[in-house]
């Protein structure tokens, strides 16, 4: 099924095409974001089926969409959305599994995704054990003015989200960058003074991310 990602404000600025045959999914922690509500109104006017994924029961998006999912992640106390973000990803993965159906051709991939979802709580526990390591790393970066986060494939979204969290929490300039575009501008900024992060999970993009790491080392980046 063809899927495109839209930023609500940009969709409205462009008056992007939405048709009666389309399904528009609105993802919002609060369910009250002004741009998302305006985009929802636009989608409804164009006859699309509107689905809401929110963390707030009774929110405007929950009330005005045709159907949807409450992620039930609990209240977000801080400015940066964390558990709501990861819960939204889980919900969208489950939605994709439901839409994709249980055909023989994708059974192995489907089972791998389901097994991965079941394993998520254990993965989170492992990450939380790195608390002191992350504090030590933060001390090394606390005086910096900027950092770059490189991601590729699915992890480009992770790079964008990670950079956003640095901006929101540390009030530091940070950019999430598509690693394949590194040579088109970002690499010129890299030197021995600029901290850089590369997200390199063992997926189809792993070997390409290794190449990115080598190029950053060549620039003596603080990787």
From TrEMBL:
Domain of life: Eukaryota
Residue ranges constituting the SIS domain according to the UniProt record: 1-105, 137-223
InterPro entries, sorted: GlmS/AgaS_SIS (IPR035466), GlmS/FrlB_SIS (IPR035490), SIS_dom (IPR001347), SIS_dom_sf (IPR046348)
This protein's UniProt keywords: Aminotransferase, Repeat, Transferase
GO biological process, one term: carbohydrate derivative metabolic process
Repeat in keyword set: yes
Repeat found in the keyword field: yes
UniProt GO MF annotations: carbohydrate derivative binding; transaminase activity
PROSITE patterns: SIS
Pfam families: SIS (PF01380)
Descriptive protein name: Glucosamine--fructose-6-phosphate aminotransferase
Species the sequence originates in: Prunus persica
Phylogenetic classification of the source organism: Eukaryota, Viridiplantae, Streptophyta, Embryophyta, Tracheophyta
């Amino acid at each position: 099924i063809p899927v495109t990602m839209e930023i609500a404000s940009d969709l409205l600025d462009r008056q992007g095409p939405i048709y009666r045959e389309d399904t528009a999914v609105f993802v919002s922690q609060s369910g009250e974001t002004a741009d998302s509500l305006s985009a929802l109104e636009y989608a409804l006017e164009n006859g699309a089926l509107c689905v809401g994924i929110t963390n707030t029961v009774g929110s405007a998006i929950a009330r005005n969409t045709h159907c949807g999912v409450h992620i039930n992640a609990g209240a977000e106390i801080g400015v940066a959305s964390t558990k709501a973000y990861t819960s939204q990803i889980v919900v969208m993965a489950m939605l994709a599994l439901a839409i994709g159906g249980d055909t023989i051709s994708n059974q192995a991939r489907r089972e791998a995704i389901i097994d991965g979802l079941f394993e998520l709580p254990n993965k989170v526990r492992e990450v939380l054990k790195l608390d002191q390591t992350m504090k030590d790393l933060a001390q090394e970066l606390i005086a910096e003015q900027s950092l770059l986060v490189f991601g590729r494939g699915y992890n480009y979204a992770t790079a964008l989200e990670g950079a956003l969290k640095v901006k929101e929490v540390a009030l530091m300039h940070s950019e999430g960058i598509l690693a394949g575009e590194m040579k088109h501008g970002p690499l010129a900024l890299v030197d021995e003074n600029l901290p850089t992060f590369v997200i390199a999970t063992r997926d189809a993009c792993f070997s390409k991310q290794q190449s990115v790491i080598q190029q950053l080392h060549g620039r003596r980046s603080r990787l």
